Amino acid sequence: MTIEVMSVITIISVACSIFFGVLAWRRNAKTDDKADATQMATIIVKLDNIDATVRDIKADNRSIQSDVQDIWKRLVKVEEKVEALENQG
Which of 76, 54, 80 is nearest to 68 (CA)? Predict the structure, then answer.
């Protein structure tokens, strides 16, 4: 009879350990999913900030290019006037 009682206790112990193991695994999976979602949201926000910064840099670059073109046109006019003055004198 003691062997049967010990077998029943062993079976109950194994069943309990499997049950609690599954519960812990499910809880950890939920926690991991929440952590992954939080990290993904952080990454998305940072990527959005990088995108906005790159757009600002591109806009600044276009403005600078426009300024350089204006300065280039003015330089060409000045060179033409200098050449015209040199030809007169």
Answer: 76
Q: What percent of the chain is predicted at pLDDT more than 90? A: 53
Q: What's the token pair of residue 87?
A: 């030809």
How many Å apart are CA 61 and CA 63, to the nearest integer?
A: 5
The 8-class DSSP code of residue 22 comes to: H
Measured CA to CA, the distance from residue 63 to residue 69 in angstroms comes to 10
Cα 5 to its chain centre, rounded Å, is 59
pTM of the predicted structure, to 2 decimals: 0.55
16-52 burial, b for 16+ CB within 10 Å, e for fewer? eeeeeeeeeeeeeeeeeeeeeeeeeeeeeeeeeeeee
